[in-house]
Design a protein that fits this description.
The protein is an all-alpha fold. About 90% of the residues lie in helices and about 0% in strands. The chain contains two helices and no strands. The longest helix has about 140 residues. It is rod-shaped, with a radius of gyration of 63 Å. The model has no long low-confidence stretch (mean pLDDT about 80).
Length: about 190
């Protein structure tokens, strides 16, 4: 209520100024008797002005108190309407944050589990790749062995055929057939 004391000070300063002016006028009036009658006439007007100022200060004070009461009532109504909802919203926000934090923790755990599973899968894939490489190497060796056995079989068949031809050849009077070099034969 800084307005009321300010108004009262202003009114008091105005009254004090008027009183000083009046006192100054009284001093001058003491010197001049003719003017003293005018001063006597001015004093009731000053008192009347002072009472008017006091009345206006009282009216303004009453108006300010009414405004203050209305403001207090409005603040109380706003608090009654907004604070419960604000508490509810804060509770909802806290619940939402707790749910998000829980979800993040679960996601972190699942991610760690997925990471471990992924590493295990990567190890299995690496093992399988090593086994496939070894199997491919063995398959290559097996194919080499099969081709070698097939060549030996062909060579053996060729030798048997030659031996059968030699046994079916004419008597030893004839010249023997030249021997073929088996190493010149294509594989």
């Amino acid at each position: 209520m800084t307005v009321i004391p300010g108004l009262v000070r202003r009114a008091a300063a105005e009254v004090e100024r008027h009183l000083r002016e009046g006192a100054g006028a009284l001093v001058r009036a003491g010197r001049d008797l003719e003017r003293s009658a005018e001063i006597v006439l001015l004093l009731p007007a000053l008192v009347e002005r002072l009472s008017i100022l006091e009345q206006s200060v009282r009216v303004q004070d009453a108006e300010l108190r009414t405004i203050r009461t209305e403001l207090d009532s409005l603040v109380e109504q706003l608090n009654d309407r907004l604070l419960p909802r604000l508490d509810e919203r804060m509770d909802d926000t806290e619940r939402d944050l707790a749910a998000i934090a829980t979800s993040l923790i679960r996601t972190g755990r699942e991610s760690a589990g997925d990471h471990a599973r992924l590493e295990a899968t990567e190890r299995r894939v690496a093992d399988l790749r090593a086994k496939v490489a070894a199997l491919e190497q063995r398959t290559g060796l097996w194919r080499d062995l099969q081709s070698t056995v097939t060549r030996f079989g062909d060579d053996l068949d060729a030798m048997r055929a030659r031996m059968a031809l030699r046994t079916a050849e004419p008597p030893p009077d004839a010249a023997p057939a030249p021997l073929q070099d088996l190493t010149d034969r294509p594989a």
